[in-house]
Design brief:
Length: 404
């Protein structure tokens, strides 16, 4: 029987339309002659796209071996609390804007899933909101300059935006009297002809201005409609309201942003490492051809202004950089390994380490693997191991925090 505790892991590529064609292909050393969009690389045991690990010279489904022996592959305490590997680890390449979205809390996800099951809505139905009973908090660490929408502007800043845009003048009394929820409901439930009438002159003005400043909403409006020709629009996406009402956040390489339940957000551009709870529950509100359910989105949105928190990470005793996340499902660290430096560690849960650059060697008492940029390993729970590098290497580690 195989006694290895460290295994080479192979993830799954996802060819979503919003992805770039080069970044992930080059990172994973894949040919992409047809220039297909490669949006995400999944590492985990999600049943719809499970990773595989190499065991006894064979590729084995990570989801299947966890189901057969969860105590060994994710740990007894993790299995007791979550019943699965509770995280999904990803690399993203965002070329085109993602949908305006909100993720439900765990309690609300359970309610929503059960209600749709009772209603007989198939999991495969495109109008289905809840694909599972789990919440979907997530954290991203930028690999490049990365732009995203994250939460509502503070009251003072949002008021200034409404005042500065002629088309938004009629919205000022609504916001002043009844606040964020009334304002957002007004624009999200507005009949489409009114949306078109209100936003078309604004979009036309932004297209003429052609700003190159990515911190301004106009840049993203221009990008959204860069291929538009003619004077008239068939339909204006109401997601544009969110570009003006939300914080536009810039994260530099190594910066992280956590997004919990209820925080409206959307990725705009760039590459990142993303770690999330093992869920596919997304409530969408625009900037997408996918199913949009405004009432459900409004039901689960946190209506308050926020100042985005950008984490630079905290260096721990073992030299790994930790990005604290306020949930029990996952944790993430950044590993910068330099020549002759040894990082000692012991896994509590199953861990996945993905190398983004250079090379690192991971060694336990049972076996060792040297992994290069674009490669990943799966480490069994309760494994003492050390990391070193002949030259240098950068990696990110996903794990489950210790459960007492």
């Amino acid at each position: 029987m195989n006694q290895d505790t460290i295994f080479l892991l192979k993830g799954k590529v996802q060819n979503y339309a919003w992805g770039g064609t080069d970044f992930i292909a080059q990172l994973l050393n894949l040919e992409n002659k047809e220039k297909k969009p490669i949006a995400e690389y999944w590492m985990g045991a999600h049943p719809s796209a499970s990773s595989t690990i190499f065991m006894n010279n064979e590729e084995v489904s990570l989801n299947e071996i966890i189901n057969k022996n969860p105590g060994k592959y994710i740990g007894a305490k993790v299995n007791q609390k979550f019943g699965e590997l509770p995280y999904l680890f990803k690399i993203l390449d965002v070329k085109e804007m993602l949908s305006i979205q909100v993720h439900p809390s765990k309690t609300e996800a359970e309610k929503g899933f059960d209600a749709e099951e009772e209603a007989g809505i198939l999991i495969t139905d495109k109008k289905r909101n809840y694909k599972d009973r789990n919440h979907k908090p997530e954290v991203m660490v930028a690999l490049s300059e990365f732009w995203l929408l994250h939460g509502f502007l503070t009251r003072e800043r949002l008021s200034a935006v409404l005042q500065s845009i002629p088309e938004f003048q009629t919205l000022i009394p609504i916001f002043e009297k009844d606040g964020y929820k009334a304002l957002y409901r007004e624009v999200m439930e507005m009949p489409q002809p009114e949306v078109d009438k209100l936003l078309e002159p604004l979009v036309q003005r932004e297209l003429k201005s052609q700003t190159n400043d990515k911190s301004q909403p106009g840049f993203w409006v221009t990008k959204l409609y860069k291929n538009h020709s003619g004077d008239k629009f068939e339909k204006i996406d109401r997601g544009i309201f969110s570009i003006y009402l939300f914080n536009i956040v810039k994260a530099m390489p190594g910066d992280a942003v956590f997004q919990g339940a209820g925080v409206p957000h959307a990725y705009l551009e760039g590459q990142n490492v993303e770690l999330m709870a093992n869920s596919d529950n997304v409530l969408r509100g625009g900037l997408t051809p996918k199913h949009v359910d405004v009432p459900e989105l409004l039901k689960h949105t946190t209506f308050e202004g926020i100042i985005p928190s950008i984490m630079q990470g905290e260096v721990m005793e073992n030299k790994e950089k930790n990005y604290p996340c306020p949930i029990p499902d996952f944790g993430i660290t950044k590993i910068d390994s330099v020549s002759n430096q040894i990082i000692n560690n012991k896994s509590f849960s199953a861990e996945i380490i993905f190398v983004t650059d250079g090379e690192i060697t991971i060694e336990s008492a049972e076996n060792s693997l040297t992994v290069f940029g674009g490669e990943a390993v799966f480490i069994l729970p309760q494994t003492a191991y050390k990391i070193n590098s002949g030259e240098s290497g950068t990696a990110f580690k996903a794990y489950v925090p210790i459960i007492n």
